[in-house]
Every structure is written in C-alpha cells, then in structure tokens.
Amino acid sequence: MPDATDKRLETLLAYKDDLEPANDLFVTDVMRGIRRERQVRRAILAGCGGVGALFGVAGAVMLSAPIGRLFTDVLPAFGLAQAALFTVGGLAFYTWFMNDDLFLER
C-alpha cells in the first residue's frame, strides 16, 4: 500500500517538460477574464470620474456669479486675487487631469 501512494506522489510531483493543451486553454481563459474585469473596472472608474467632474463643474458654475460679485463689486481692488484664483484652479485641474506632480526644486 505505501508503494502505491509513493508512486502516485512521485507522479504528481514529477517535472513535465511538455505542457498539456488543457493548461494553455485554462491560462488563456483566466487571462481573458482578467482583461474583461480590468475593462469593467476602467469603465466604472471613468463613469464615476465623469459624474464627479460634472458635479464639480456644476458647482463651479453655480458659485462663479457670487464669487465674481465678491471680487468685483465688494472689493474692486482684488482683480489680481481673482486672476490668482483662476490660475490656481487651472493648475489644480491640470494636475488632476494629467496626473502629474508639480516638482519644486530646492
């Protein structure tokens, strides 16, 4: 009885130089499933990012008139501050969109 178990164990642990075609099909199916899941993940992330961007733009549009009045009517000398606000907003959008980091050299 132990000889039969040893033979079976030896067969299972033996190195096989040639791969069976079923293993290649299994690997191909697994990789296809992984690709499909990646595509679904990208689609979900793109959809959620697009909805978030739309809400951000809608909020900016709704707040642009009150902020514009604050900088032009209430404090007319703050035209430079308004330009700085739009510049920083543009840089923030660029950093988010391009996924870059602004490196400061010392």
Chain-wise SSE layout:
Layout: H1 2-13, H2 21-74, H3 79-98
Describe what is shown at a glance:
With 106 residues, the protein is mainly α. Helix content is 81%, strand content 0%.
Structure explained in plain terms:
The structure is a single chain. The chain is an all-alpha fold and 106 residues long. It has one domain (21-98). The protein is built from 3 helices and no strands. The mean pLDDT is 78.
- Say what oligomer this is: single chain
Shape: rod-shaped
Radius of gyration from CA coordinates: 30 Å
**What is the H-and-E element order?**
HHH
Largest sheet: none
Count of separate structural domains: 1
Q: Indicate the mean pLDDT.
A: 78
Q: Ranges with pLDDT <50 over ≥5 residues?
A: none
Number of helices: 3
Terminal CA distance reads 75 Å
Q: Give the total of beta strands.
A: 0
The percent range for helix content is over 70%
Beta-strand residue fraction: under 5%
Structural class: mainly alpha
